[in-house]
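Lecture 7 notes: from sequence to structure.
We start with the chain below.
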Amino acid sequence: MFIDSHCHLDFPDLAAREAEILAAMHAAQVTHALCISVNLQDFPRVLSLAERHPHLFASVGVHPDYELVPEVHEADLLSMGQHPRVVAIGETGLDYYRLQGNLAWQRERFRTHIRAAIQLNKPLIVHTRAAAEDTLRILREEGAERVGGVMHCFTEHQSVADAALALNFYISFSGIVTFKSAAAIKEVARNVPLDRLLIETDSPYLAPVPHRGQMNQPAWVTHVAQEIANLRGLTVAEVGQASTENFFRLFRVAASSGDVG
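Predicted structure tokens for the same chain:
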């Protein structure tokens, strides 16, 4: 039993294969998935997936790379985030890798998401790239530890993981952990407490070995679990069980919700 804690099934290439993607999940014993919002304009597509399929959940938020979108208001996040199928706020955070210049707007947007999450008492899904110091600082300043969340697609060093863990966050590993070049990430995967670890695909991106270069899908989250099991000297079933329990705990979802496995 496995859960893909971060995927984008509303993106056109995956949406066109919805039935096939869901059937592959079932065959691989991937019982649930969290479909992630990246902008409010397309949020209805994300929510529709969660409303039509009881084993899928939704988040609401605006990705930090989406610069040319309308300003994100806390009231909008609160209104959309109240829906019972929405289990998290995000993805949100900071990205200093893809965007340059004055990124004050990005930091303010991040704060808006954190404040909405605290009001809704729902966890955050945090994206951070080349911005770990500011990401952690803002999480601390806004009191994000009150709701916690997940550092998704973790690509930082152990010190960043430790700081996030201290803020009541979980660490999620994507297909990157299967790459030969990902030595630092593999080391973090060995050390993160088993009760604070999640697995994800970030579909349609970052397909794991042995599917590199292909369009990713939730069924392949099992390869992430297998790599972590190998790194930690565990069985893949043990990693699957632990990460599944962690998902339900973090997102405050009943373990029986929509189980198709």
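Points to note: The chain has one domain: 2-251. The chain is about 40% helix and 15% strand.
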